[in-house]
């Protein structure tokens, strides 16, 4: 546990806390009295890729995946994947000939999964430009290595702005689809919240009526990075 001074503005703290404390957006509470449903959902999360966005809320179908599934061309074909975005850099991009043969358009983004890395500042425009180049109804797969942090922050930011949903609802949906460990890089959380604030999509403050997190955030001075 780190006790370093937070690098984000105090105004963002309630939403950052709500995302960082995984109890707040724990998808398993939905299945509190349904053990069979819980197991079934856990199996769905393992069956990558998982669907994050779809029409009519979004122009395209956007899937989140790990590296292994991004190289499984039989699986990609069964889902009708037309576009692939690799956000883990050239070392994870595979053979271009295979994507060409499968009639899949692909781009590679050199993002790093490190605390403090400005992933949205450096690569958001590049990511969105490729997504917008895909015709409506396309099936877009976004992946990094594990499908947990880099690819997760991009699909979350995309869902946020394209569907005009608030940040806690977006992250709750992301974790319901991918698991509670999705988006645990602290600085990526900070950036997503700042991105939501810039776009007017923070949503209700935790503890306020209509917010999915009923508890108020602890004082800003109590910041801990888990």
UniProtKB/TrEMBL annotation:
GO terms for cellular component: cytoplasm. It catalyses: O-phospho-L-threonyl-[protein] + H2O = L-threonyl-[protein] + phosphate; O-phospho-L-seryl-[protein] + H2O = L-seryl-[protein] + phosphate. GO terms for biological process: negative regulation of MAPK cascade. It is an enzyme of class 3 (hydrolase). Residues 54-201 form the Tyrosine-protein phosphatase domain. InterPro entries: Atypical_DUSP_subfamA (IPR020405), Dual-sp_phosphatase_cat-dom (IPR000340), Prot-tyrosine_phosphatase-like (IPR029021), PTP_cat (IPR000242), Tyr_Pase_AS (IPR016130), Tyr_Pase_cat (IPR003595), Tyr_Pase_dom (IPR000387), TYR_PHOSPHATASE_DUAL_dom (IPR020422). CDD domains: DSP (cd14498). Gene3D superfamilies: Protein tyrosine phosphatase superfamily. The active site is at 144 (phosphocysteine intermediate). Residues 125-178 form the Tyrosine specific protein phosphatases domain. One of its GO terms (molecular function) is protein serine/threonine phosphatase activity. Keywords: Hydrolase, Protein phosphatase. Its EC number is 3.1.3.16. SUPFAM superfamilies: (Phosphotyrosine protein) phosphatases II. Belongs to the protein-tyrosine phosphatase family. Non-receptor class dual specificity subfamily. This is protein-serine/threonine phosphatase. It comes from Seminavis robusta.
């Amino acid at each position: 546990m780190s006790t370093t001074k937070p690098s984000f503005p105090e105004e963002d703290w309630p939403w950052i806390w709500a995302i960082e404390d995984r109890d707040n957006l724990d998808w398993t509470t939905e299945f509190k009295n349904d053990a069979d449903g819980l197991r079934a959902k856990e199996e769905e999360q393992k069956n990558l890729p998982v669907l994050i966005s779809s029409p009519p809320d979004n122009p395209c179908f956007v899937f989140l995946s790990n590296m292994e599934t991004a190289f499984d061309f039989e699986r990609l074909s069964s889902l009708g994947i037309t576009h692939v975005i690799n956000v883990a850099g050239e070392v994870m991009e595979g053979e271009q000939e295979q994507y060409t043969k499968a009639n899949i358009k692909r781009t590679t983004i050199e993002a790093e999964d490190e605390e403090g890395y400005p992933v949205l500042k450096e690569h958001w425009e590049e990511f969105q430009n490729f997504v917008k180049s895909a015709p409506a109804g396309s099936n877009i797969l976004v992946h990094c290595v594990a499908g947990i942090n880099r690819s997760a922050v991009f699909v979350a930011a995309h869902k946020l702005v394209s569907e005009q949903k608030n940040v806690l609802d977006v992250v709750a949906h992301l974790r319901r689809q991918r698991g509670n460990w999705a988006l645990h890089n602290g600085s990526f959380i900070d950036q997503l919240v700042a991105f939501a604030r810039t776009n007017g999509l923070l949503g209700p403050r935790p503890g306020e009526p209509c917010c999915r997190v009923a508890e108020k955030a602890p004082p800003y001075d109590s910041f801990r990075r888990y």
